[in-house]
Amino acid sequence: MSFQFPTRPLKTRLTALATAATLTLGITQPAHALFGVGDIVLDPVNLVQNTMTAARTLEQINNQIRQLQNEAQMLINQARNLASLPFNVVNRLRSTLDTTRQLITQAQGLAYQVSNLDAEFARLYPEQYAATVSGNQMFQDARQRWKNTLNGLQTAMQMQAQVSQNLSQDEGMLADLVSQSQSATGALQAMQATNQLLALQAKQSIQSQQLMLTQDRAASLELARQAAAIERGREVTRRFIGSGTGYTPQGVSFYGH
After folding, report:
1. Mean pLDDT across the stretch 170-185?
2. pTM, two decimal places
């Protein structure tokens, strides 16, 4: 046969016990009576007071323990929120951008620098050829314009190939960042993961601008080449005809008729 102890709080049990003892003792003797066996003396009133004091002290201790536990949990949460994310893709993003930037830097033909562009463009794509420019020079300029257009198209295609190659890398970085964000242990790690996701988005935006730049440049070079070819054709025609009187057909008589 098993016996189960009461599950009521300790304070309630102690109070009930002390009250029962007081009532029992009060039936046989006044509350101030002293009972003892040998040298041991029992004061019921003191017993109740001491029991109540012990119960209140125990409750205070339990409250302090709970408060310390809450403070410890708060410190743990603060430590998690301040923990830095042990993952960084910034260097990988910079490396990808450097690769696409090098394609633009290595591009041949018409320079990208504004300071050199105006003079070179005016020489190769003139609005009008001067009379002092030789036919051979016009031919060389036309060939250089064709090469510029070809180089512009090549650079645009190289950029397209590089961007296509970077897409697989971007997908890998995106998967890593999403995983880091979902497993973040605190606010700081989640914020840092979000910032790196924004950096990946900014990198893709810059890369798209670079691709658009090379494509627009190739299209502009071709349009400028066509305009210069029209001017060259006009100048060649003018020099062929010259400024003299053109040939006028006249009738010819044979045998005096």
Report:
1. 81
2. 0.54
